[in-house]
Amino acid sequence: MIFDSILLTLGRPMNKRNFLITAALSAALCFFGTANAAETLKIGASPVPHADILKVVQPELAKKGIDLKIIEFSDYVQPNLALSDKDLDANFFQHLPYLEAFSIDHRLNLVSAGAVHIEPMGVYSKKVKNLTDLKKGASVAIPNDPTNGGRALQVLAAAGLIKMKDGVGVNGTPLDITDNPKRIRIVEVEAATLPRALDDLDAAVINSNYALGAKLNPTKDAIAIEAKDSPYANVVAVRAGDENKPAIKELMSSLHSPEVKKFIGDKYNGAVVPAF
Description:
With 276 residues, this protein is α/β, with parallel strands linked by helices. The chain folds into two domains: 39-119 and 232-274, Periplasmic binding protein-like II (D-Maltodextrin-Binding Protein, domain 2, 3-Layer(aba) Sandwich), CATH 3.40.190.10; 122-225, Periplasmic binding protein-like II (D-Maltodextrin-Binding Protein, domain 2). Helix content is 40%, strand content 22%. It has eleven helices and 13 strands. The strands form three sheets. It has a six-stranded mixed sheet, with helices on both faces. It has a five-stranded mixed sheet with strand order 9-6-10-5-11. α3 links the parallel β1 and β2. α3 crosses α10. The protein is globular.
C-alpha cells in the first residue's frame, strides 16, 4: 500500500520493481556523493615562507579529497587564538618553543603535529656591514615576545656582541646579559615591525619569515646569522587530540614530501632549511 501511494503520487507509470531499483540507485548516488565530497581544512599561516610552502601541497591534498584553505596572518598572536577558538583547524607560523610558551601563558591546549622547516634568525643593518663596526651605545632591536627575544639574544651572544648568563637559553632577557662591552642598547620591538624599523636602528635581529617578506635575503643581507643546526624548527600546530586526525596526517605527509624539500631548497637558497 505504501509503494502504491508513492507511485500514485509520482503521477507516472512505474511498477514496484522499477521503483525499488530507482530508489536504490538514488540512495547510492547520495552516499557516494557525500563520501567523495572534499573535506575542508583551514590553516592559518604567515605569508612567507609558510603560505608559500602550503600552496605547494594544495594540489596533492585536493587529489586526496582535502580542500586546504590557507588564511594568512601577519602577527604571532591571532593564529593561535583562532586555532584554540576552532576558527582554524591548524596553523603554521611558529617554532616549538614559542608554541609551548604561548600555550602556557594563554592556557591553551595546543600541540605540534610535526616540524617542517627552520628559519635561521639573522642580524640586519642599514648602517654597518659588520657587527664589529657598531659604535658604543648603538641600538639593536630584538623581537618583544619572550621566546624569540631570548633566541635573538643568543644570536648576538654567538656573534660575540654580548654574553648571557649561563643556562638561560631561549628564556633569556636583556636582564640576563652579563657582559656588554659596547654598551649596546637592546630595544624590544614587535617582530613583524622590525624590518620597517631598520631605518631608526643601528641593527635588528629579525625572524627569517619577516625578513623574506621585506625582500631581505638572510644568506646575503644578514651581517650575522643563526647556525643552521638551530633547534627552532617551525611546526604545524593543532588542538591537542587533533594531531591523529586523518586529514592532519595527510597534511603532514605532504609537507614532508621530496617535492616540498626541493621547493624549499630551490626557492630560499639556505634562508629556509628543511627540518625533515
